[in-house]
Amino acid sequence: MGASARLGWAAGVVAPRPGERVLEVGCGHGVLVALLAERAGEVVGVDRSPTMVTAAGRRNRAAVEARRVRLQAAALHEADLGPHPFDVVVSFNVRALCDPAQEVTWDVVSRVLAPAGRVVVASSVMTPGAEGDVVATVARLAGDRGLAVVAVHRGATAPFASVAVELRRPADADRG
Questions:
Q1: CB of 153 within 8 A of CB of 128?
Q2: How far is 172 from 150, CA to CA, in rounded Å?
Q3: How far, in Å, CA of 71 to CA of 22, rounded?
Q4: CA pair distance 157, 6, nearest whole angstrom
Q5: Listing from the earlier edge strand, what are the strands of the sheet with 69-73?
Q6: Could you give the CA distance from residue 71 to residue 115 in angstroms, rounded to a whole number?
Q7: CA–CA separation, 135 vs 130, rounded Å?
Q8: Which residue of 8, 27, 46, 111 is surrounded by the most CB atoms within 10 Å?
Q9: Closest Cα partner for 164 from 142, 84, 146?
């Protein structure tokens, strides 16, 4: 129940528009993929775990068959993301987007993001003070690739509060 509440909140923050291409980094069981696919034009989910991608495929079978969802078991920097950019890149509790040692992940995000696209990095806040650390780390790592924080969303989700850092390239921040 708690994961669904958190991922439902995250889907509301992302709020993809019809026709948008969305990339979920670390798609796990495919719960957020399913929520995003209800609104987006196409959702691509990538996860390192073949077991998780298999579960996501079962959960999203109809959308996969309709070619609205594509899933891939791979590290993001090894994934075949195709030639078209993404309007939104999203993650929830993906350590690689908050770990300075995993900067290659941000290189890929920056490369595949559409010029007017946005990135939403969401995380559970499990300890006091963690929210500030997440926001600062994401801002620095994304900032090194020309992305700026345009909003910080906070959710009173169970069993832990959630935070989502929304980023865009500065030239696009005014277009909201």
A1: no
A2: 10
A3: 12
A4: 6
A5: 69-73, 42-47, 21-25, 86-92, 113-125, 161-168, 148-155
A6: 24
A7: 9
A8: 27
A9: 142
- Is beta strand 86-92 parallel, antiparallel or unpaired with respect to 113-125? parallel
Q: Is the dihedral of CA 97, 103, 106, 108 positive or negative?
A: negative
pLDDT tens for each residue of the chain, 176 residues long = 345 889 999 999 999 999 999 999 999 999 999 999 999 999 999 999 999 999 999 999 999 999 999 999 999 999 999 999 999 999 999 988 988 888 899 999 999 999 999 999 999 998 877 889 899 999 999 999 999 999 999 999 988 999 999 999 987 544 44
| pTM for the structure as a whole | 0.93
